[in-house]
Specification:
Helices cover about 55% and strands about 0% of the residues. The chain is mainly α. The strands form 2 sheets. The protein has a two-stranded parallel sheet with strand order 1-2. Helix 6 crosses helix 8 (about 165-190) and helix 13 packs across helix 17. InterPro entries: hAT-like_transposase_RNase-H, HATC_C_dom, RNaseH-like_sf, ZnF_BED_domain_contain.
C-alpha cells in the first residue's frame, strides 16, 4: 500500500458542508481522481457527514458500494470511549498523576527516586509525560507506574508526605489491562503500509472479549461501563463492509464469520435479550454473505472477460503464534468446522474451500497474497484490491498537522499557504520513497473532543 499527502490547503471559509465539498472536489479534479475514489474517511463532525452525499454522487459510487462510501475514523471512536472511561475514574487517577508530577517538577526528588530504586535493586524507568491531548500517553504512564506499585506510594509518603491510597494503585493496575486492548486496536487501525479493514472484526471481537472479561472486576466495572456505552453508540451495529473485508482475508473467509458475529453481539446483548434487540446475528451473517455475493456479481459484470480460475492447492506459512485473545479462540473453533459453499461460481467455491494455513500475525501480507493469486482468483482479487485499501482511520491525516507545525515555526512565520503546502507534500513524498511514514500516535487536540469545528458530532 501507498500513502501520499496530495494537498494541504488553507481553508478560511466557514466549515459548512458545501464549502467542504467544493474544496475536496477541486483537489480531486486537479489530480484526476474523481472516478478513482472508493471510500472517504471522516471524523464525526456533522458538516463532514453532510458533505458525503454530494461527494458520493461526484465520484459515481455504485448503488451497492455507495452505501459504504463514508467511513468513520475508528481511532477517533476508540479515543472517545477511553476518554469517557478515564473521566469516570475521577480522583483515583488524578491522585496518582499528582504524585508523578511531583517527581517531574523536582529534580532533587527525581534523583532521590532513582536512588530509592537503586537501593532496592529495582531497575529505573522514567515516567513518560502525560499529555492531555493523548490518552495513550496516560496508558504508557500507568504501565510504568504498575511496575513500581510496591515502591512508589511508600517513596512519596516518606519524602513528601503525599498519600496514595493502595486502592488507587489497584485501580490503575486493573485499567491498564483494559487499555491494552484499546491501544492494540488503535495501533492496528493506524497502519500505513498494510490494509486495516480486514483487521476491524478481529479487533472489535477482542474488545468485546475485554468488556466481558472486566465487566465484573472490582474497581474497573464502572470504568468499563462508561467505555461500553460510548462504544455501543457507534458500534452497536457493525457495518457490513467490514464483514466483506474480513471475508477477503484468506486466513478467515466466509465460514469463520458466523462465530465472530455471534460472539460479538452475544457479548453486548446476552442471548435472552435478543428478543428485545433488533439485531439478529444469523440475519447479520446472511446479509454480509448476500452482500459479498452481490458485490462479486457486480465486479464480475465489470470484469467478466477475465480468464477462468486456475486450480490451486492449499498454501501455508509458519507465521506468528495464534494470539491469546477472544478472536484467537474463535478462529480455532471455526477451523474445526468444515467449510461449505453453495455458490455456483467456481471462483467463489474455490476460494472458500481453499486451505490457507496462516496464523493470526503481523507477518501476513494480504495484498501480496492476492497479487500472487490473481490468476487463480481474477475477480476476487480486484474486489480485494479495492475493499482492503479502504481507510478506517484518519490518524495519518492528523499526523500531517503535527508535521506542518514543524515547518511553520516561530522562526518561519511568513510562508505563504502554497509554500507551506509544497513543503508538507514534499516532506511526505520523500518519506514515502523511504517507506518511513509509519504513524506515531499523536492525535491533534480535536481528537480529544467529540465535536469539532465543523459542528456537533452525530
Amino acid at each position: 500500500m501507498h500513502k501520499r499527502v496530495l494537498a494541504f490547503r488553507e481553508f478560511n471559509d466557514r466549515h459548512t458542508a458545501d464549502n467542504i465539498y467544493i474544496l475536496i472536489e477541486r483537489i480531486l479534479i486537479e489530480y484526476n481522481l474523481i472516478d478513482k475514489v472508493f471510500a472517504v474517511g471522516f471524523d464525526n463532525a456533522s458538516n463532514n457527514t453532510a458533505a458525503i452525499p454530494r461527494l458520493r454522487e461526484l465520484c459515481g459510487a455504485s448503488t451497492l458500494m455507495g452505501r459504504f462510501f463514508h467511513q468513520r475514523c475508528a481511532c477517533h471512536i476508540l479515543n472517545l470511549c477511553v476518554q469517557d472511561g478515564l473521566a469516570a475514574l475521577g480522583n483515583a487517577l488524578e491522585v496518582v498523576k499528582g504524585g508523578i508530577k511531583l517527581i517531574w517538577a523536582n529534580t532533587p526528588l527525581k534523583m532521590q527516586w532513582r536512588q530509592y530504586l537503586k537501593d532496592r535493586r529495582v531497575n529505573y524507568c522514567a515516567f513518560p509525560k502525560d499529555l492531555s491531548i493523548r490518552w495513550n500517553s496516560t496508558y504508557n504512564l500507568i504501565q510504568v507506574l504498575v511496575r513500581y506499585k510496591d515502591h512508589f506510594p511508600a517513596f512519596l509518603r516518606q519524602t513528601c508526605n503525599y498519600i496514595i491510597n493502595p486502592a488507587d494503585i489497584d485501580t490503575c493496575e486493573k485499567i491498564v489491562n483494559v487499555l491494552a486492548y484499546f491501544n492494540n486496536a488503535t495501533l492496528t487501525f493506524s497502519h500505513v503500509y498494510k490494509p486495516t479493514a480486514n483487521e476491524f472484526f478481529v479487533e472489535v471481537v477482542n474488545l468485546a472479549g475485554a468488556f466481558c472479561e472486566f465487566s465484573d472486576a472490582a474497581y474497573v466495572s464502572y470504568f468499563c461501563d462508561f467505555m461500553k456505552q460510548k462504544f455501543l453508540k457507534y458500534y452497536s451495529h457493525i457495518s457490513h463492509i467490514y464483514g466483506i473485508a474480513f471475508v477477503l482475508d484468506p486466513r478467515y473467509k466466509l465460514p469463520y464469520l458466523p462465530n465472530c458475529i455471534d460472539y460479538y453481539y452475544a457479548s453486548f446483548f446476552p442471548t435472552q435479550e435478543f428478543d428485545d434487540n433488533p439485531i439478529d446475528p444469523k440475519q447479520e451473517f446472511n446479509e454480509v454473505s448476500n452482500l459479498f455475493h452481490q458485490l462479486y456479481n457486480e465486479f464480475h459484470a465489470q470484469y467478466g472477460n477475465a480468464p477462468p480460475p486456475m486450480q490451486r492447492t492449499s498454501s501455508s506459512s509458519k507465521g506468528k503464534s495464534l494470539l491469546k485473545s477472544a478472536f484467537g479462540s474463535l478462529l480455532k473453533k471455526s477451523r474445526a468446522t468444515p467449510a461449505t459453499e453453495q455458490s455456483s461460481g467456481n471462483e467463489l467455491s474455490l476460494y472458500v474451500t481453499l486451505n490457507v494455513d496462516y496464523e493470526v500475525g503481523d507477518d501476513f501480507d494480504v495484498l501480496k497474497w492476492w497479487k500472487e493469486n490473481e490468476r487463480t482468483f481474477p475477480i476476487l482479487s480486484k474486489m480485494a484490491k479495492q475493499v482492503l485499501a479502504m481507510p478506517i482511520s484518519t490518524v495519518a491525516v492528523e499526523q500531517e498537522f503535527s508535521a506542518a507545525g514543524n515547518v511553520l515555526t516561530d522562526f518561519r512565520t511568513r510562508l505563504s499557504p502554497s509554500s507551506l503546502e509544497t513543503l508538507v507534500c514534499f516532506h511526505d513524498w520523500l518519506k514515502a520513497q523511504r517507506r518511513t511514514q509509519e504513524i506515531t500516535i499523536t492525535p491533534s487536540r480535536h481528537f480529544m473532543e467529540e465535536t469539532t469545528e465543523g459542528g456537533e458530532s452525530d
